[in-house]
Amino acid sequence: MKVLLYIFGLLVFSFGTHGDSIYQFPDDFLFGTAAAAYQNEGAWNVSGKGPSIWDTFTHLHSEFVVDHSNGDVACDAYHKFKEDVQILKELGVKFYRFSIAWTRIFPTGLPHNPNADGIAFYNALLDELQKNSIIPMVTIFHWDVPQPLQNLGGFMNPKMIDYYIEYARVAFENFGDRVRYWITFNEPKQFCQEGHGEAYYAPALNMSGVADYLCGHNLLRSHAAAYHLYNDIYRPLFGGEIGITLNGLWFEPSNPQEEEAAERMRQFYLGWWAHPIFTAEGDYPPVMKEYIAKRSAQQGFRWSRLPEFTAEEVEYIKGSADFLGFNHYSTFLAANAENDDLTISFANDHQVKTFLDPSWPKGASSWLSVVPWGFRKFLKWLRDSYDNPYIVVTENGYSDLGQIHDAERVSYYGQYLEALLQAIYEDNVSVIAYAAWTLMDNFEWFDGYKSRFGLYYVDFSSPNRPRIAKDSARFYKYVIGNNTVVPYKKVN
Ligand code: NOJ
Fold first, then answer.
1. Separation of 266 CA from ligand 1 center, angstroms?
2. pTM of the prediction?
3. How far apart are CA 398 and CA 413, in angstroms?
4. How confident is the model at residue 18 (pLDDT cuts 50, 70, 90)?
5. Centroid of ligand 1 to alpha carbon of 236 (angstroms)
């Protein structure tokens, strides 16, 4: 069967010279795809579901999204999940990463009387996956804060830790028997810094250098509390694993003198979250503490705008993950931008400027260019910085405008998967799983339905939301079927 698939792959994709790597993915390597509730479920107000900040925000501020769309219906995955599981099966994936919509479980976020219909929905999805031998990887929080909890300050309110933990408890309790991998939070940098510090994501507070750090502080405490709850009570019962998903852009020094600045940017971007959890000393990265404290003093604050963990909290957060979930898409160049601007902001705290090399091929998202060597360098950096953790690549993918013959996406996946193989075999990075973002085109936040990441095309003008396999779906299927990068044409 493998040979047949391979020959078919050769016929379909071999008009170029790439792929056919000398390396095979390890036999137990896990391939999957990833998605998130607000982006694909739709059914925003059915069966007792309450509004999240994304429901409210897109309804009140459609101008925030390029095509004025929202996730009310999205891919209608809420109703079409059985069909979607068949697609996953057809692709041959070993696991499926999806997120739970908090307000399906607790419609107001307040932790009382869980909504039976919401629990039934995820039970049905988990059962369907199990029936088809697909391992569930479940993200507890992928940005959709219950609106009433946001009205209380959301993650800037320390009480949120209790609310989040009760939600996580209900999830562990009801779904833990089938879930092998749990992810406490998806991309805290994007959620806290770009959604609280800036206005790229809901709740769009735009209070850079203040709201982002408060959000991050309580998010890290919530993460650790969920880890310990699982570790103490549910791991002994169910034996799953629990981690967190961090997004990393690779920051390459724009010239060799800029390595210090590039490293500072890596620490502010990913180290903010990884250092407290994955290093032996724990706590925020020293460079972050130093720069924010210094700038805060210059601004006339009597304390640093970056909150401090107590010694017990440092211990409690340290080591609170079985694996590092890593979302990676792209690379930026970085250079020092030390300045005297005392405006309060994240950028004036880190004092690094980042920019793209114009020669890099670009995707449809403004921030995405094709730089596979950045992926490899980043994986090696994670190994070296965090004592060789288990890494689950929880997202990687390419955006275009939705064409079915998506040669650029095939080329992107081919190159990034080759880089991943080199990281595994030549740099000894412990990557155990990889998820393509995403199974099907879905609501891409402020890019609406314009930039598309799917292996499957979705026709959003049709009420039935038909899914159609793109060339990249076939390519990924051959990769999974052969455990290696099958030939493809490099076009970007
Ligand atoms: C990361 C996020 O987790 C996901 O929600 C988003 O759609 C992809 N990046 C692509 O931007």
1. 19
2. 0.97
3. 8
4. confident
5. 32
In the three-class reduction of DSSP (H, G, I as helix; E, B as strand; rest coil), residue 100 is classed as coil
In angstroms, how far is CA 24 from the centroid of its own chain?
26
**Cβ–ligand 1 contact at 327 (below 6 Å):** yes
Determine if ligand 1 sits within 6 Å of the CB of residue 36.
yes
Of 110, 33, 107, which Cα lies nearest the Cα of 77? 33
Give residue for tokens 């412990």: 430
Residue 485 sits at φ, ψ, to 5 deg, of -85, 110
Name the residue ranges covered by the structural domains of the chain. 2-482
Q: What CA–CA distance (Å, rounded) separates 55 from 148?
A: 12
CA of 442 to the centre of ligand 1 (A): 10
Mode of pairing for the β-strands spanning 241-253 and 135-141 = unpaired
Query: Residue 192 in contact with residue 215, Cβ under 8 Å?
Result: yes
Burial class (CB in 10 A: 0-12, 13-18, 19+), 382: buried
Atom of ligand 1 nearest to the CA of 444: 7
Choosing from 263, 395, 418, 444, the catalytic residue is 395
pLDDT mean over 200-221: 98
CA 4 – ligand 1 centroid, Å: 34
Measuring CA to CA, which residue among 401, 397, 421 is closest to residue 410?
397
Q: Please classify residue 303 by burial: count the beta carbons closer than 10 Å to its beta carbon, then call 0-12 exposed, 13-18 middle and 19+ buried.
A: exposed
Instruction: Identify whether the C-beta of residue 455 lies closer than 8 Å to the C-beta of residue 469.
Output: yes
Distance CA 435, CA 442 (A): 16
| Residue 204: closest CA among 64, 51, 344, 42 | 64
From the candidates 41, 187, 198, 418, give the one annotated as an active-site residue.
Answer: 187
- Is the CB–ligand 1 distance for residue 70 below 6 Å? no
Which residue, chain included where needed, has tokens 């972050």?
A: 288
Q: Which atom of ligand 1 is nearest to the CA of 453?
A: 10
Using a pLDDT cut of 70, give the percent of the chain over it.
Answer: 96
Q: Which pLDDT tens digit goes with each residue over 332-377? A: 999 999 999 999 999 999 999 999 999 999 999 999 999 999 999 9
Q: Which two three-digit tokens encode residue 68?
A: 């004025």
Class in CATH terms, 2-482: alpha beta
Helices (H), 16-115: 37-40, 53-60, 77-91, 102-105
Closest C-alpha among 491, 470, 259, 463 to residue 381: 259
Annotated catalytic residue 187: yes
Instruction: Give residue 265's identity as a one-letter amino acid code.
Output: M
State phi, psi for 29 to the nearest 5 degrees.
-65, 140
